[in-house]
Design a protein that fits this description.
It contains four helices and six strands. The protein has 161 residues and is an alpha+beta fold.
């Protein structure tokens, strides 16, 4: 699918949006490209590549996982990945959100051009049920999340074993 994107840079006019789910999975090369992109562009907010690959496989329902959505934005002419989002279904509802946004990143060379917003809007549109996400207090994307209607309901605390 080709979508017009409100990108202000003159070099990028249109982006392609690819959506992968448990019904329409990416092939191994595509999954590796998405994982490598996220590893590079999540920067200090990222995780090890293996964790990213696990989240992508989870979204695609590998090993009977509940599934989710992986959405990738690419530049129309070069097919270069400009952004990606991974949303996993939690398999729960009513007491916690049905989905968790695990990863979202845009290429640092096109940040602030509307790609992240486009990806978030598409993820919200395609996800069934509520979406939770974890966001570091100093993450600049926090303002986008709030603008899209995300609120901070709880302070997350974790116990590591």
């Amino acid at each position: 699918m080709i979508l017009p994107c409100p990108i202000r840079a003159k070099t990028i006019k249109m982006i392609n949006i690819q959506t992968y789910t448990e019904e329409k999975t990416a092939d191994e090369i595509q999954k590796q490209q998405i994982a490598y992109f996220l590893l590079q562009h999540l920067e200090q907010f990222g995780d090890p590549k293996n964790d990213i690959e696990n989240a992508i496989n989870y979204a695609m329902g590998i090993d009977d996982k509940p599934g989710g959505i992986v959405i990738v934005a690419t530049e129309e002419k070069t097919h270069k990945i400009l952004g990606a989002v991974v949303v996993n279904k939690t398999g729960m509802s009513q007491y916690i959100p049905e989905n968790i946004l695990v990863y979202i990143a845009t290429d640092k060379n096109v940040r602030g051009k509307g790609i992240g917003k486009t990806l978030m809007q598409k993820a919200i549109e395609l996800s069934q049920g509520d979406i939770a996400l974890h966001c570091e207090p100093d993450n600049p994307a926090k303002f986008l999340y709030e603008k899209l209607g995300f609120t901070s309901k709880y302070l997350e605390m974790r116990f590591k074993k």
